[in-house]
Amino acid sequence: MKKILVVILLVAVTAALCLLPVLLNPAPRHLIAKIRYFDGSMDTIRITGYSPVGGSIWLKTEDGHIALIGANNVIIVEDEDY
């Protein structure tokens, strides 16, 4: 019985070690934010991350800038053809 438990434990540890690099380095997400301004014009920016903050959306651009935009004025799209 102990041998079976040891084999199961070794298989589990080996699987965890094989999946560790995948979990630590997820595939990059290609995000684009489409922003609508009050005058009706639109802008498209590439972002690396976003987070809801109250009634706004916090956007971090690829070059490091941070923008806080009203949630009703932003559409976030994941683009496969980045």
> What's the shape?
elongated
Number of helices: 1
Q: What assembly state would you assign to the polypeptide chains in this entry?
A: single chain
The structure class reads alpha+beta
Strand content: 35-45%
- Element pattern in H and E: HEEEEE
Radius of gyration: 21 Å
Strand order of the largest sheet: 4-3-2-1-5
The percentage helix is 25-40%
Low-confidence stretches: none
Largest sheet: 5 strands, antiparallel
Q: What is the residue-averaged pLDDT?
A: 87
Please give the alpha-carbon distance between the first and last residues: 53 Å
DSSP, total strands: 5
Describe the structure.
There is one protein chain. By secondary structure, the chain is an alpha+beta fold. 28% of the residues lie in helices and 41% in strands. The protein contains 1 helix and 5 strands; from the N terminus they run αβββββ. A 5-stranded antiparallel beta sheet has the order 4-3-2-1-5, with no helix packed on it. The radius of gyration is 21 Å and the shape is elongated. The mean pLDDT is 87.
Break the fold down into its secondary structure elements and pairings.
Blueprint: H1 2-24, E1 31-36, E2 42-53, E3 56-61, E4 66-70, E5 74-78
Antiparallel strand pairs: 1-2, 1-5, 2-3, 3-4
Brief digest:
By secondary structure, the protein is an alpha+beta fold. The protein has 1 helix and 5 strands; from the N terminus they run H-E-E-E-E-E.
